Every structure is written in C-alpha cells, then in structure tokens.
From TrEMBL:
This is Beta-lactamase family protein. SUPFAM superfamilies: beta-lactamase/transpeptidase-like (SSF56601). It comes from the Bacteria. PANTHER family: BETA-LACTAMASE FAMILY PROTEIN (AFU_ORTHOLOGUE AFUA_5G07500), BETA-LACTAMASE-RELATED. Residues 9-280 form the Beta-lactamase-related domain. It comes from Mycoplasma mycoides subsp. mycoides. It holds the Pfam family Beta-lactamase.
Length: 300
C-alpha cells in the first residue's frame, strides 16, 4: 500500500438510506465500520511501540498471562498469523470460537474476560507457520488496555480520534438519527431484491449504547469524512499542525508485506488476488500498483 496524497476532490452519496420510505442518503451517516476498525487498532498499537512500551517480539502472555504456552507474539496479532480465527464450522478452532463468542454476547463479557476465554481454545496452527483472518486484532486491543492502563476505547479516542478531529467516531451508535441502515440481497418471488435489516448486531453486544466490550477488530462506528481523516495520517504520520503522530518507519512497516512464502499461500487462497499480501492490520498491494484509489462506503 502506497499512499502519496489523499485529496477529497469529489464526494457524492447515491441511493437511499431507507428505501422503504424513500429517504435519501445525506452524506453524514454513521456506519458500522466492522473490519475497517482493524487499521485503527493497528495504529493504536504502533503508537505504544513507537513509545517503546511494547515490542513486536513480545510474547502475548507478558500482557495476558492466560495465553501462556501459546507462543503468540505481538507481531502475530498484527499479521493474522496467531492461529486465532473467527467463528465457523470448518475447523475445531472455529467451532470453539463460535461458542466463546456466543457466551461473550449472552454473558456480556468484558474484553479481559473474552481474551481469557479465547486463550483456552486450540489454535488452528502454530503461530507464524500460516495465516488466517480472525480475532487477532481484538486480542491486541486488550494488550493496549493493559499497557496504557486505560480502556481500549478511551485510548483510541484520546490518542487518535481527538488528535485527528474524528468527532463522529466511537464504539456505539451515538446518534440514531444518522444511522446508516443495513441492506442485504434476498431472493424472493423469482427475483433478487434488497431488504433492509432492522437490527444488524453481528459481533456487537449492543449498538445504540456503549457495550461492556469494545472489539478492536470490528467495533467502530464512523463516517466517510472521519475515516478519510484517519487515512490521511497514514501517508506520513503527521497531524494537521505538521507534528508527528507516529514514526514514518513504523508506518512503512504497517504498509509493507509481512508474510513469508508459507503463510502467503494461505492468504492467496483466502484473498484470491495475488496483487496483495498482508501488512499490519490489513492487506497491502505488492504488484500492479497505481496511485489512483477510490474509497466507497456501502451498507449491503
């Protein structure tokens, strides 16, 4: 990934936020960002690394003792090479994580409790030997809490949102009137149609009130304009006043290919596009690169 300059030369919203009542999008809607949360958490962790409060080579168990003997490093969490997955039914690991996430929602676990439960599951593979998309960044958000002695949300708000003037970003839907509605394709009466989903709470304990546990891999609510502010700081790590938020060296590592040939093969199987690899907290383009990029926010 190579960000040279982000200029908002054209911004336009299309379609309806509520097609049943023909309410058009206004442009200030608040979206459930889901995995776009991951780069935010990544930057938060890199801020701690920049201050030498944690290291890429640190054992996870140094900060979360229940992960003792798992041999997971901070680097593994940033690169999705920890052996942690999301829930599913393709492996014993996914089935175990499904139960943990079900219990997390029912019992209203804190982030600390969630991570302690995740530490009990069988990893999909030995850390660093493969790649799999999963809950690594969510566990990393607990490391941020332990090291900063603040909640994950408070740390991100103080060190990122406030400094970037991301005033429309948080970890719950703080303004219901600006909710970006969710739609999904369904097949009905021999044709495809878009149906509005009233309460889309996948991977959320709650939406319209602050949950007990804010997930660093999926919990963000934000606007298109706010997220553009975040992307701008990834260019050179500088704030609007030209002060340095994060070192350029760490930013370059974040945007660089971090995978070996062995775990890159699994990434290609998942990604189905050999133009990309994985950096810290997100995929990065490694070939057929051009400098033109389009950012689209959608709720389907």
């Amino acid at each position: 990934m190579q960000l040279l300059e982000l200029l908002n030369i054209y911004s336009k919203q299309f379609g309806y936020n509520d097609q049943n009542n023909t309410i058009l999008l206004k442009g200030d809607e608040i979206y459930q960002a889901y995995s776009m949360t991951k780069p935010i958490t990544t930057l938060a962790a890199l801020l701690l690394i920049d201050k030498k409060l944690i290291s890429l080579d640190d054992d996870l168990s140094k900060y979360i003792p229940s992960f003792k003997n798992k041999n997971i490093k901070i680097w593994n969490l940033l690169t999705m090479t920890s052996g942690l997955t999301y829930s599913g039914n393709k492996s014993n690991t996914q089935l175990q994580i499904k139960k943990v996430l079900d219990d997390w929602k029912i019992n209203n676990y804190t982030l600390e409790q969630l991570c302690d439960e995740l530490s009990k599951i069988d990893l999909l593979f030995v850390p660093s030997t493969n790649w799999y998309y999963g809950l690594s960044l969510d566990v990393l958000s607990r490391v941020i809490e332990v090291v900063s002695n603040k909640s994950y949300r408070d740390f991100v708000k103080e060190e990122i949102f406030n400094k970037l003037n991301m005033n429309d970003s948080d970890y719950y839907l703080f303004d219901k009137k600006r909710k970006a509605n969710v739609f999904r394709w369904t097949y009905k009466d021999d044709q495809n149609q878009l149906d509005q989903v009233e309460n889309f709470d996948f991977l959320f304990q709650s939406i319209d009130k602050l949950p007990v546990c804010n997930l660093g891999g999926s919990g963000l609510f934000t606007t298109a304009d706010d997220y553009l502010k975040f992307l701008n700081v990834l260019i050179d790590g500088k704030l609007e006043d030209s002060s340095q938020l994060i070192s350029l060296d760490l930013l370059n590592q974040m945007k660089s290919d971090q995978l070996t040939k062995n775990n890159l093969k699994q990434f290609f199987n998942w990604n189905l596009n050999e133009d990309y690899s994985y950096g810290f907290g997100g995929r990065v383009r490694i070939k057929n690169h051009n400098d033109n990029n389009v950012i689209i926010t959608s709720r389907t």
